[in-house]
Write the structure tokens for this entry.
Amino acid sequence: MKKATYLLPILVIAVVGVLSSIFVVDEREKALVLQFGQIRAVQEEPGLAFKIPLIQEVVKYDDRILSLDTETIEVTPSDDRRLVVDAFARYRINDVVQFRQAVGIGGLRAAEDRLSSILNAQIREVLGADQVTSDTILSEDRRDLMNRIRDSARAEARSLGLDVVDVRLKQTNLPAQNLEATFARMRAEREREAADEIARGNEAAQRVRALADRTVVETLSESEREAQIIRGEADAERNAIFAEAFGSDPEFFAFYRSLQAYEQALQGGNSTMFLTPDSEFFDYLKSDQGAALAAPE
């Protein structure tokens, strides 16, 4: 009975000791076994592992690719147009021993603070380099700039036991105090371009109108010339017909010309004429042919 009384606590202590000496490493983690702050073992493979209870402790770190958003900073490219830039990075703990030695008990928070400083410094250095303008940063060439930032940050982050997988610029905007001035300049440029387009349009319209007016004048002149020629030819043909008729029958020609004279002179809207009865104008009316023509049927 006394032996059972002593064995039970010993058994409990033994079980607790065995359980406290076992720890599990997840496939998404890496673990360090520390003894009085010193690294005694590294467990990078998933599964069960052992440590000395009470003397040793286990510190686990995430083995997945992690994300870090940097703070917004201002950069000044070579064309002196300031830009507001922020970025995000993808990184992972590559060397857990070096990581522990670099950041100590600060852990991931301390590592991210130092990595953020590295990224900001590299962003300023790369985007502020010669031959890098704001247009370059805002164009498709920014991919090359981001790769340069990533490579430079990766080289410095190795001392922290980190591997920088990727770096991307999230935004590249103008500072708020420069936006209004930039918009005003853009509006002025667009207004100037619009005025130039309007001036060119008016000039082109003047050329078209002048060409049209000249074409109208030339067409009218040509038409008038052709009309004069046609009228002259018609008058010549008419006179030839009259001359031929006069030569063939002078009396009929005189009769025809008298009729034309009466038609022109005796219209209702003409002014009043005073003629004597024996005027030569009425010779044909007093003739036998005229009397016969004027007599009612």
About this structure: Residues 66-174 form a domain with the Tetrahydropterin Synthase; Chain A fold (CATH 3.30.479.30). The chain has four domains: 10-62, 66-174, 182-248, 250-297. The radius of gyration is 57 Å. The first strand starts at residue 22 and ends at 25.
